[in-house]
## 1
Amino acid sequence: MAQSIFHQADSRGQANHGWLVSSHTFSFANYYNPERIHFGALRVLNDDMVKGGMGFGQHPHDNMEIISIPLEGDLEHKDSMGNVAVIREGDIQVMSAGTGIYHSEYNHHPEEAVKFLQIWVFPNKKNVSPRYDQITLQKNDSHNQLQQILSPNPEDEGVWIHQDAWFHLGNFDEGKTNHYAIKKSGNGVYAFVLEGGFQINGYDLGRRDGLGIWDIDSFDLKATSNNSRILLMEVPMHISHN
């Protein structure tokens, strides 16, 4: 039987540091909720706003797959592998921290805010060589359909990570529907509404609401307003490290 967990937008953990305003779907930094540590291999889903000219100074990560999705503005990235890049709305950035990496993230614009999702996924392999990649999506590929933006396969569409995970973005007109089939048995899906609203599995979701679904083979979604945008994150529900 299908199981699900619904997280309303206003139930997320809040952090306001002045230069950074962040909403945490799962426990992170000073926000701790023992019932919201992770959803399967999905460990972090942060909805961040960084003021102009500000950002995160150099800091370390290891053994984590880190995905950044800019929603507005430009985010500047630098890391210990020598990568220097700016990621913008419509781009997807991925970093396999593996054996260890240092990086910094700053708002590339001196005045306008940058808004982005920071997502962490537990890897299925530890101590891999650190890796960085970014791509620019074709916006029309997500109109009234789900566009794959991440998978476990380097040859597949989107970026790839060391985990049996698949991410999709969709931008739907009101009343449009889509059928999603689970890619791998034992996986679940965490649906996160970026804009507008959706009906999924008997739930009405609004902007920034989240719904986790597992023990299911497929489900349908329906947009309840125009310009409704959603991110689906399919991940293993049981975490294992090779």
## 2
Amino acid sequence: MNKIWESPNLISIVILVAVLGVAAGYVAFTLNQRPETESFTVDDDYFFPYNFDRLERVVKLPNDLKEISGLCPGFAPDELLTVQDEDGEIFRVNARSGELLSRLRFDKDRDYEGITRKGREVYVLETDGDIHQFTYLDSVDEVQATKLETDFSYRNDTEGICYDSITNTLLIVPKEQELNPVGDSNQRRGVYTFDLRTQMLNPQPTYYVDELEVGQIVYGTNRQYQVKPSGIAVDPFSGNIFILSSVGNILVVIDRDSEVKHVELLEKGTFSQPEGITFGPNGDLYVSSEGRSGRGIIATLTRQGQPTTTDEQR
């Protein structure tokens, strides 16, 4: 009788069965850990105006934007400005078709993660926290940006930036280490403000997301849900802050007191690595995702209900 090690085919079958057994166990464990729902509105007085189960559209982007990162509104309806992780260029994209309309070089190639603008002034965020500022001009394809340095560094891995018209600041979120960790910062993800008037960064978070609070909402138990912000945007009608995390595929909405209003778990089949988020002037929401094994995408969500105009917009 042949011994098992003398039967290569039998050995292969045994190994295959073992691997399948481990995989099945992992899948079962994952399914048991997954929440029963993917949308959580915490405040009964808050209406979350988007339905992630019914996206208005999802468009695929050119190969140049496979590693699309930040988003901000463009200068015309359905147009967005974006950056990708490696090139010192910004791209103007049609959100309806995914067409690349133009590109503008502003600096040499680095690791750029976010983009925002105030009027024609554009701000591009580097992963080390440096902000590259320049004036957008339609008539040119290259400009020279001015670098605004902050106290962030590569260990913070800053990925999200947006303009906040309510405070006239740039909101910046680090994906990794907090700037000056204190107290319960191991469970709080800070939102920092860069004052455009003084061009100074507040060294302490102005707002934050509490991972333990998010975990209690999602799991119903005293358990943290990991949030590593990759994008940030301010709702132009409510003033609430939308924070996107590619880790955990989650969107968290907080108010100006850092109270969680809503949590949305994003479907990984569509949003494989969500990194960009912004609003259109009509309240539509745009979310971009890198294409891990395919092309990058931009999803459009139509705002539901009648928007309420803020004092800032009157």
## 3
Amino acid sequence: MLSWFSAIDAQLIARLQSHKLHHALLLSGPSGLGKHAYLPELAQAILCQSKHSRCGTCQSCQLFAAGSHPDFYMIQSDKQIGVDDVRQGLEKLQGHAQLQQNKCLIIHAADTMTESAANALLKTLEEPTNNTFIILSASSARLLPTILSRCEKLTLPLASVSEIQSWLTTEHNLSANEALVNAYATPFKVLAALEDSSGLTFAEFSDDIQAIQTGNLLPLHFGQKWQSKAIECIGWLQHYYLQQTKLKMGTADYTYFAQKLKLSTLTASKMHHAGINKALLLSELLSQ
């Protein structure tokens, strides 16, 4: 169990054991938080035959661990979730549970469902079969209002810097300073950055910002270098300007960094426009 989910997990399990858990849950949180790891753990508890405790020894838990539980189905896709994916998952929920307990369907990244896929899910959300639980995860609000209205919406807690650092050390034998953790924000993004030895890194970004400040790097060259990671880079710049704004509170430089923070937010909104010159946008932001 990821430590930052412990509190909300305890609440959900208590509601499950008292038969007060909603049949359709939408668990939201940013990408890289660990939703993909947590949802199956919640499903195991829902299906466990020993007071929903994830006992690990009952028939349900053993089948779950083996990946062959007859009353569990999971939908996931690297791109979009289509209507056929949803229909196949819903077929698994028809009829009585084979283990005479609950049935559970997980839909990872439900915000990537096509409109037809979401519509296929609606009837089951409205009229679920007995002892059926549907758990959806999402990293954005791109879901049909009809889906949102039929689910209990829960926002997963973010991991603190210390929780991320402890998890990296304990589970992966890796370390990250506070600046790196803040730059990537979520645990699995920090982990991916530490394990990725190729490409541009936050450490190199920090060095380049210092080089601009000392006149050893032109903003134009910075923009050209970082345009392939412009969206991630603009997020780092926003965080940098926010930190500087806090540090410069009450000084002559406060207004400058506050303006930079506002400009970086405006620049971020332009980064997703098709055909935009990302190198130029980065260069202009750093030149102003």
## 4
Amino acid sequence: MNKVYKFSLVEPVQFFKAGQYFAEAGWRHKNIINDGDYELFIMLKGAAYIQIGHTQYTLNTHDCLLIPPHIRHIGFRGSPADTVYYWMHFFPSSPVTTSYVTDEIHHPTNPAAVNLPQQFNVKNFGRLTLLIRQMLDSDNDETAAPLATNFFVSSILIELSHQFMTVINQEQGYTSRFEMIKNWIRIHSHEKLTVEQVATEFKMTPVYLTKLFREYEKMTTIHFINLTKIKQAEELLLTTDLSVKEIAYELSFENEKYFLRVFKQISSLTPTKYRDAYAKTYLNNVEVDPTIPLPKDRDSHQTSAD
């Protein structure tokens, strides 16, 4: 199984050294142990053969290898002619945790964390190359602040993590399959929907469908259906003169009384009180002009470079 390293980027990582290497035929990575620094080894072309501890890795074009500190690594076979790769060393800004490719890393809850596998083939290499060239340019610019290079390395980690997580999610079918289910519910929100109907549409059991909603949305299928309908009801209350009863039937609730109960559970107000409270502020609702919170740490500290 592929080992995954999780880095926190609340603070940028610290750049150490980097470069681009053109290897001759028969080149092997030297026998070395990194003293606290992580190394990213990214292939442009050719092949490299690196052993980390007792595990051997074969790297081909656009493969990326993360080498952790405090463990011996060495080339176990000679590379062919015209082998070219990028290399970079950095120190993490906080403790690093590890796991393996499992469900727990598919949807990370910490937005400041990135997941990097031990070995990974980069799909969109052009995006990564641009960031690496910027990092190398910053490192070789004597007038550039060291902090700039730290941020370039952190951006490289973010890009690698994004590409890795995209592949993982696609392999699990989450991105396309589950988003399709949610969009289908939104499109059909004016109809009378049941869990069984949605499950049948996507050829799965109601139990499995609800398991997906609990895992990815932290709610049941029926709650997501009702939540979608109530969002539609809120818009109708603020943009039309339809009565509460008419809106209930417009959204295919079985009766007005049930609609009133569901609306209050979700909105904490009755439909009438909601209309009275928000009618004058509709033009500034989050769908038209979304509220974007200020960064939590914007004034908490300033970082200076030596």
